[in-house]
Each structure stands twice: as structure tokens, then as C-alpha cells.
Amino acid sequence: MALATLAGPAQFALEAKKSRFLARACSVDSPGAALAWLQQASDPAATHNCWAYRIGANYRSSDDGEPGGSAGRPILAAIEGQALDHVAVVVTRWYGGTNLGVGGLVRAYGGAAAECLRTAPRRELVVWQHASLDCDFALAGAVHGLLDASGAQKLHEHFDEHGLHLRLRLPASSYAALADRLRDASRGAASLRSLENPSE
């Protein structure tokens, strides 16, 4: 199943024993962006702002003063249950005077997050691969045609006495096919190299 992320922000409200819960969700690109958005989306006047985010292998959650495991983990479980990535969710609670108990809190926080995400607009999550490409001048036209066909984006391009040098980003799913096509088109003269660190 292909991972998806949100195509835009979403929210969902519910009430449980007079406590109001408002779930908000947003697509985020990094843990820093997630924390910045969570701070901006939280209501400092509310009783609790519980949250979770998942960005690839990075994930965090917070119960924000609720009993341990009753809020942040159910929100994270809602993200994972919807097969979403690069997503942050905050569920804000305004206390209504009646304790819900741990089970009630799990249902309220997890339920608000799940319904918010279920109804949110989605888009397929594209995982980008950064690469460098070097080739002779004579191959530049053919190389540019292959790049267009593979959905690659040029980040930097320069020429010197050795030929054409490119920095690219392309969908990770297209990398192996592009490498094969370049090798075939250039008889091995064009080199495509994966860059783990985009600043290389």
C-alpha cells in the first residue's frame, strides 16, 4: 500500500461528557516543522494540547498532562492506522467537568484524530532521491530527455571541460530505471550517483 500524506489541513470536533475535543492535522516535512506547527496550532487557553507526528522513521507523541498513554499514543496509532506519513496531529481538549477515565480518553483522543484523518484530503507521498549526474557534452540532449521522462528535477547544472554536471532530485521509485536507461543510452559513459546527503 502506497503511503500518503495530507493534501491540505483538516480538522474534526467532538464532545464527550461535556469535554470538547478539536483535532487538527497538517502535512509536515521535518520534525522541526512539525513542532513549529504543533505550537502554532495548540490553544494555550485549553486544558490539554496532546499531539503526535510521524515523518518516516521519526515519530513523537505527547500526553500534555493527561494520564500516560491515554492521548499521544492513540493519536500516533490513528496516523499509522490510516497509513499516513509526514503528518502531525494535535487534539486540543477543553475540560467539561467530568473525568472520562483512561479508556474514555483513549477513545476520545484516538477517535477525534482518526476521524480527522479519515476525512482529510490526501495525496500520494513521493519519497525523493537526490543524485548527481555527469556525462559528455554529446549526451546532453539524450540525458535531458531521460530526466524529463523519469520525473527528475534539476537543482543545479554546470558545464566544464569534462562535460555536463547535474544535481537532481527524482522520485526514489524512478532511480533504478533512470540509472539503467542512462547506462544503455551512453554505453556506460554517463554516471548517476545517489547522494544520501543533499548538500554533498
Structure description:
The chain is α+β, with helices and mostly antiparallel strands and 200 residues long. Helix 2 packs parallel to helix 3 and helix 4 runs antiparallel to helix 5. The strands form three sheets. It has a five-stranded antiparallel sheet, sandwiched between helices. The relative contact order is 0.16. The mean pLDDT is 89. The chain contains five helices and eleven strands, in the order E-E-E-H-E-E-H-E-H-E-E-H-E-E-H-E. It has two domains: 121 residues, Ribosomal Protein S5, domain 2; 68 residues, Alpha-Beta Plaits. The longest helix is centred in the middle third of the chain and has 18 residues.
Concise structural overview:
The protein is built from five helices and eleven strands, in the order βββαββαβαββαββαβ. With 200 residues, the protein is of the alpha+beta class.
